[in-house]
Amino acid sequence: MVPEDGLIIAVIGGSEPSVEVATLAEQVGEELGRRGVTLVCGGLGGVMEAACRGAKATGGATIGVLPGSDPRAANPWVDIPICTGLSYARNVIVVKTGWSVIAVGGAYGTLSEIGHALGDDIPVIGLRTWSMSRDADGLDGSILVANDPRDAVDKAIEVAKQRRRSPAEESG
Amino acid sequence: MVPEDGLIIAVIGGSEPSVEVATLAEQVGEELGRRGVTLVCGGLGGVMEAACRGAKATGGATIGVLPGSDPRAANPWVDIPICTGLSYARNVIVVKTGWSVIAVGGAYGTLSEIGHALGDDIPVIGLRTWSMSRDADGLDGSILVANDPRDAVDKAIEVAKQRRRSPAEESG
Amino acid sequence: MVPEDGLIIAVIGGSEPSVEVATLAEQVGEELGRRGVTLVCGGLGGVMEAACRGAKATGGATIGVLPGSDPRAANPWVDIPICTGLSYARNVIVVKTGWSVIAVGGAYGTLSEIGHALGDDIPVIGLRTWSMSRDADGLDGSILVANDPRDAVDKAIEVAKQRRRSPAEESG
Amino acid sequence: MVPEDGLIIAVIGGSEPSVEVATLAEQVGEELGRRGVTLVCGGLGGVMEAACRGAKATGGATIGVLPGSDPRAANPWVDIPICTGLSYARNVIVVKTGWSVIAVGGAYGTLSEIGHALGDDIPVIGLRTWSMSRDADGLDGSILVANDPRDAVDKAIEVAKQRRRSPAEESG
Fold first, then answer.
1. Which terminal CB of chain D, N or C, has fewer other CB atoms within 10 Å?
2. Is the dihedral of CA A149, A153, A154, A158 positive or negative?
3. Burial of D45 by CB count in 10 Å (0-12 exposed, 13-18 middle, 19+ buried)?
């Protein structure tokens, strides 16, 4: 399979997932590694660790955007620890660094990351994650729902490539 | 009415609200000003401007946490412009600065702010805003739904006072 | 004396100053309060606390931009605690929120804040603070040196007013 | 030469360097690439671009921590663009991500980064950069001065390895 040159996709999710959600996250990581896509996540445990472990198992590269200042806080499957010292505000960086985002399960931090991504026009693919709607005008949260890890990665790569072909964004 | 000493409550919502939502935001601001509560918001237009205008009409004080670096970008009803230069990452600061948060209507930025608040254990009161649920385990988003602006402010003050009576939080 | 309407000036300095530096900071705060200028600082101890105490003694208003998430971590002379959760990255917000900056003594955090201010074209007045020069081309750090607290506040107000009269900045 | 496993070193400097400073930056990049050290920088032009170009010429890997939201704003020699959307506040992340920091020439942004690094106990090696001192107590800015690019990289690797052998830092 031809690796996806330079494509980075974010995987988001909580640090204390159920076994089922952790397994899904690991399979998402495996699938990303298999396609040669670089994974970016928050660098810690739970969904983040499971996804990184999966990616390394299939030869992928992993970036961990950490809340703190010590790179050794990253889980053992992070190749490149980015130290922000920004605490949870680092979530913004995780989603912005992906050409698209896969949300797996998810706690409130994940909800916040989905909000950031959608507000930034970064496509979000959901696997067992939040669904949401707005009372006032019936708009939904515009998440693409995936059936399984492979479907999530297929969809994430497709929308990431579409976005990469679009004109450069002004905010640079 | 006795002013609520030093109580700060956040009002969040989009910059292009419907007329109905803008009216609700203005009434929330009026009600906060009437109770002597200081309002904090993102400092720009739409819901933020309507809420500040309401607060000033009833003698309240207003803080605007701006995305940019020029205080003159604040709407005219902001007393204290805080310049962050952080772009949308400033949303975290808006919700953290309130003892509680009132969400009025809302776009994706608002969704992100709700996620931050809930992840931080900051109570959120919703007026015509997002509702959300998590597929994986049926948890809801824990927003207190208000019937009208007065009810929203009543609820927001009550939970803010409860939070202020709780032990100091370790993260300082 | 006519209060300086809506003028906010930042005071920066370390959390463990010498007695002499703490006294200078308190006098800077007193002088700002006397002129009706609002003081913004990092909200914690040392120079920040001394300056806030001085400002409140002469009727001034004070804003504390905190590194953490609990407003109760502010020193007792902070009127308006802004909670950022950004750790030391909050220093950027302190200097950006002032129309000008007074540096009193100072540790490495202060050096970083001076760098941010100068990089942002925010004028810096120094009282017993860092001096610096660039090897490569002999440029200096462009800090206005003050002789005493009163002189520092005079200079800070003058440059702040100049800046406020300049055209609005594009970054908003 | 044995590559330095997983070692990341930051290179900081302005976007409009003199020809001499740009040449030094390129040589620093070449030397880092030759030793198998990953380079992290702000991802844009000037010193950042020269250092990345040098690193790629000798087979190194490069990370660019961008101020904006579009990865395509990175210079062409960045392998891994990290999008922060934080504007200049992203400087904190550049220095924190390095086990040590090499400052080449430098404008005010560089001064701010040096301040962050020193405040965070991250060792700084200087090549034609700022020198600084504190009036109040005669302390200097604790920068290790290098004679040339090779010396800068030798010193940076030595202090980075020392820091990596030290106990994990609590802030994680």
1. N
2. positive
3. middle
Q: Are the beta carbons of D88 and B85 separated by less than 8 Å?
A: yes
Indicate which of B75, B77, B78, B97 best probes the interface with C, i.e. most C CBs within 10 Å of its own CB: B97
Strands across the sheet containing B38-41: B80-83, B62-66, B38-41, B8-12, B100-104, B124-127, B144-145
For residue C72, give the amino acid letter.
Answer: R
CA distance B11 to B75: 14
Would you say D13 and D46 are in contact if contact means Cβ atoms under 8 Å apart? yes
Residue type, B166: S
The whole-number average pLDDT for the span D144-165 is 94
Looking at per-residue pLDDT, the higher value among A131 and B109 belongs to B109
**Cα D125–D113–C103 angle (5° rounding)?**
115
Decide if B92 contacts B116 (C-beta within 8 A): yes
Helix axes B19-34, B47-57, angle to 10 degrees: 40
Contact status of A147 with chain B (Cβ, < 8 Å)? no
| Residue B22 in tokens | 């803008």
Q: Region B94-108: what's the mean pLDDT?
A: 91
Cβ neighbours of residue B90 under 8 Å, at least 6 residues apart?
A: B42, B65, B66, B67, B84
CA distance C40 to A1: 57
Residue C89 touches partner D, C-beta closer than 8 Å: yes
8 Å CB contact of B89 and A89: yes
Q: Which two tokens stand for residue B71?
A: 């205080």
B70 CB near a chain D CB, below 8 Å?
A: no
Taking residue D138's Cβ as centre, other Cβ atoms within 10 Å add up to: 7
pTM of the model: 0.86
Kindly provide the ipTM of the predicted complex, given to two decimals. Answer: 0.88
Chain mean pLDDT for chain A? 88
Q: How far apart, in whole angstroms, are the C-alpha atoms of residue D95 and residue C87?
A: 15
Instruction: Name the burial class of residue A136, with classes exposed (0-12), middle (13-18) and buried (19+) by CB atoms within 10 angstroms of its CB.
Output: buried
- Give yes or no for a contact between C10 and C114, defined as CB atoms under 8 angstroms apart: no
SS (H, E, C) chain A: CCCCCCCEEEEECCCCCCHHHHHHHHHHHHHHHHCCCEEEECCCCCHHHHHHHHHHHCCCCEEEEECCCCHHHCCCCCCEEEECCCHHHHHHHHHHHCCEEEEECCCHHHHHHHHHHHHCCCCEEEECCEEEEECCCCCECCCEECCCHHHHHHHHHHHHHHHHHCCCCCCC
Does B16 lie at the interface with A, CB-CB under 8 angstroms? no
CB contact under 8 A, D108 and C115: yes
Would you say C86 and C61 are in contact if contact means Cβ atoms under 8 Å apart? no
How far from B7 is each of B3, B91, D85, CA to CA, in Å? 9, 19, 31
Max Cα–Cα distance, chain D, nearest Å: 46
CA distance C90 to chain A (A): 9
pLDDT at A154 over 60: yes
Gap between the Cα atoms of D102 and C122, Å rounded: 26
CA dist list (Å): B33 to B2, B29, B60? 12, 6, 4
Degrees, nearest 5: CA angle C13-C18-C19: 110
Residues D37/D158, Cβ–Cβ less than 8 Å: no
Q: Residue A21's closest CA among A105, A138, A84, A145?
A: A105
- Cβ neighbourhood burial of C23 (10 Å; 0-12, 13-18, 19+): middle
